[in-house]
Structures are given as structure tokens and as C-alpha cells.
Amino acid sequence: MNKLLVLAIYYAPYNDVGSFRSLKRTKYLARQGYKQYIFTCDHKQKINKELNSDIPRNAIVYRKPIKIFNNNSLTASNQKRNILHKVGFLLKDLFFSPDRYIWWVLSSIPKIVYIIKKEKIRIVYISGNPFSSFIGGYFLKKLCDIKLVLDFRDPWKDMPINKKQSLIRKSIDIFWERICVKNADLITVCSDNFLFSLKSNYHLNDKIINIPNGFDLDDFMKNESDPDDSKKHFIFLYTGKYSIKSDEYNPSNIIIAFNMFLERTKTQDCELHFVGMTDNQTKDYIRLNGNDCVKCHDLLPKHDVIKKQMNADALIHFYYPETHVDTISMKIYEYAVCHKPILSFNVKEGDLYNFLIENELGETVDSHNCEEIAHLFNKAYQKKILINKNKEIFISKYNVEYLTSLLSNSLKKLISEQEQ
Length: 420
Prior knowledge:
The protein is of the alpha/beta class.
């Protein structure tokens, strides 16, 4: 049996989007003959124990406690930037780059080295971000002479948020990305955009492959839902994070546009539902600005979310384009299986736009343009968004079991190279 160590800062039962790709990969790698040793943080917040059902039974999971230092305490953005303030920013960038998990990763290396040597593990698989784990992978390769596989869920040095970072922080990111990419034996990415960017930046040839996000068919087979014939409203449904304090998932424009749509069309049988992780400030904002037609829900179990998706009339996806350009999230694939029109409030060009159009899944409009969003609400309500009636090809191509087999084939090549 092939052995694999997975270093995953985010992993079940931690309920964050960063957990899901690693969790689903380990689930299906186990079915394809891999014995896995998973080293992860012992998170105490954002916990959803339902996710543990996807952890392979034969996997050995090591959970190291973590205490996150609030590096924002080194700075105070509302105060005048005096000399002490500048020193605080400098310390934060020097000691907490590329992210605040760096010291957890570095302090974990002795334990991981012990596991690798004791169990005779030959491959380490790491998904980022956080990209501190990639730096840990570099040291593990040097100390243990293992094959290193790096999975880019997001760009690193080209992450949009880095545009706001200091020159020191940017330089650290550039330095470590180059080192980690150079020393990786295999790099996987989740979009053609990332693939092209890394290839052009580092002249990569055959050691980089695109394995997109996807959906787990098991989630839908276990949670098939009959249509709710008692439903009286046309339901627009969003699932995921939403917070008015977020640069990525601020729902205020959607609520403004939905109110515009209702007022202009005099529609009285529509509701907009938000389901997912949020905060009290956002709930208060929705109560004050969303009227009775906008419903705010907390995080729900996975099977309940899928049932809501299956019974909704249109599914909403959004984030602001300056945050994750061209990212095709796992949510898009899960929405697609529900066979409902997808309204993506993002951008009108790029990988995501092309993906929705080519697969006839829905449409996109600019997330900053409330007029366009209101128009798309009306178009969906009028059932004028055409979607593909035949989803079998999509299901066969983008289910996680198949996508993980692509990863498995590449891992087997690395193992055979090591044996030669």
C-alpha cells in the first residue's frame, strides 16, 4: 500500500472552504489504495463534526494544538502611524509572513519528520493557502528526501490582497514561492489561469497539472430530495460565507439589487435566502435592509444545504473580482449538479464566466453593478436563463472521485521514479 503524508492546516472538522479540497482528496485517495497520515491543526472554532464522516477510516490523523497570535495587535489602523506604529508593521511582516501559521508549521517539523521516517513515507502532499505549509514542505523534502506535491488552491505572490502589503511582505512571498516551486516534484492547480501563471513565471514543463475543484457525488446520492410542491415562493438561494465586513463576501449589493428587482416588478412571491457562516452585524443589516423577503440562516448540516439547493429555483454565487480573479469554487460544481440556473455576481469575463457559459450553467454580471444584478434577478424569475438539460458529461468530468484518480496517477508516477 502506498503511503502518503498530508499536511493540511485546514481539515475536518474545521468548517472552512480551505478544508474541503484536502478532505475530499484524502477520502478518495484512500479508496484508491493510499494509506494516509494527516497532520493538521486542532482548531477549536468553526467546527462541524459532520465533516468527519469523510475522513478515511484507515487514516491516522495527528492534531497539533494551535494558538493563533493576533498579529493585528502589533498595529492599530485607526491610530496615527507614528514610529512605534511603523515598527509594529515591520515586526508583523518579518515574523508572520507569509501568514500567521508560520510558527505552528515550523514547530511541527520535528514531529512530522519523525512520522515520515518511522512509517517510511515517500510522498508529502500539501494544499495551500495558508502557504506557510509549503515552506514546511520544503524543509521536509530537504530533511527526509521525500517527493513533495504542492497544491495551489489560490495564487501565492499574486494573491490580490498582496497588492496592499508592504514591500517586505511581498519580497518574502516572492522569495518563498520561487524556492517552494523549484523544489516541488509535482504541482497541482485548480484552474487554467493558475496553470498559465505558474508556467510562465517559473518555466515549468511536465511537473504541473490542472486538477479543478469538483463535487462529491456521494453528497448528492445520500441527500436526494423530491421537489417541494408546497413551496409558495420563487427561492433565490446563496450558500457560503456572507459578511458586510468582508472584502470578498459582502452581500449588501445583492440585497440592494434584490429590493430594486422587487420594487420594479411588483413581485410578491420571491424570497432571497442566505445560508452559511455569518456574524451578528450582518444579520442586523439584513433585518434592517432586507425586508421580509430576505431570510438569514446560520450554518446548516451539509445534507440540509443540499436539500435547500435542490428545492431552490435559482442559485447565487458571489464575490468581488479584486479578491479571487478567475477562481471556480467548489460551490459552482455543487450548484451545477442541482440543475438550477446559477447567478454569479462576479465579473463578465474570465475563467468563471467561460465555465458557466460553455457548460450552460448560468450567467455572470458585475458584482459592483446593482442595476445588472437586479436585471439578472428578473431574468431568472422570468425563467429566461437557459441551462443545459443534459448534465451527464459534466458529472462524469467533474466529480471528485474521477479528479482524485488524476492525482493518484501522478502520485504513482512519482513513486515509480523513486523506486528506479
